[in-house]
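debug: dumping io for the single-chain case to check the tokenizer round-trip. Nothing else runs in this session.
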Amino acid sequence: MQFHEAANFLFDLRRYPPRPGIDATEALLATVDDPHEDLRAVQIAGSNGKGSTARMVESTLREAGLSVGLYTSPHLDDVRERIRVDGRKITEGAVVEFAEAIRPYVTEQAADGEPPTFFETLTALALWEFDRQDVDVAVLEVGIGGRLDATSVVDPVASAVTSVTLEHTDVLGDTIEEIATDKAHVAPADRPLVTATEGAARQAVEDTAGDLCTVGGEDDDVSVSYEGIERAEGQVNLSGDGWSVAASLPLVGRHQADNAGVAAALVRQVATVDEATLARGLGNAHWPGRFEVMSRDPLVVLDGAHNPGSCQRVTETLSAFSFEDLHVVAGAMVDKDHRGIAAALSGADRVVACRPDVGRAEDEAVLAQAFEAETDATVQTRADVAGALASVLAEADEDDAV
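debug: decoded output
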């Protein structure tokens, strides 16, 4: 089997809707000798911020001298981006070896109508690779929820719920409290669950998990102070019981300061790190597609915001920059809150709705209707992302933002 054949084998697996529960993932892992059983795993759930937090944890643990596996989703360009060991993508050869090992089982399950899903299989691949590479810690970003997510096959040594918003209500529940309760099931057995949630979400998390390490305000276990953007980096002060850190974050925005606080708490639960190591680790945590400034004239920002909460954070972070007109190139999946996303980006002067080249992407005309209903922007459509971006860049002035 060649790599392109292995990749096609993976992408041919069902991707949507997600299948709640861990039974299928456990069964798949059993075919490769249960590699997850001895892993020291950090599991990170949350509506927003879990990927950035996972990257900060990974970066800081590596700065402390540990070998670290990192599992995140989705990928931007190459499926191998999802699985990294010490910053390096899983090799094509490893993907082929795993695909060949599980193909007989997957084929058998497909004949019975119950093959593992794409996410279940990628999760198993990550855990197999981390065990094979003998990592000291595996950092896992949860896919959806917590209680029934494929990553919950592990028994984590530390866990977090970064934030909670209304999302995936068809799977997780119709209220903030129900969604928070589901996510809180990632809590480790013998350590406080780290969380930056607030209000009703925090109460639901506490009711489910019990012992918490809270992040955010002055009265929390980890206090976070965001000092704004300087030299294109977010300036943050973090402090806890007997420690404090001032760090410059490549990931900018007030929300990333909270994510840094969650990451710091998780790192301190699983490793001995001094303040200088913590500051360096957070400062090295680059993550593509998270308010990534691509150019300056005009200001061009790439962000993978996918729900109203994350789009609101993009708007808030943009407010720290000076520009004239705001041009938005937007695409979304069919299961997202399109009108909520549009409302969070209501400051746009021009919107070009497009359809990403993904099977469950929403039609650009449907997305355009949401922006027409929720904004005063001039709204246009383009079938493809590249064409949409090219048209906006051709019209944007140097003092605009895209």
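debug: round-trip ok. The first strand starts at residue 41 and ends at 45.
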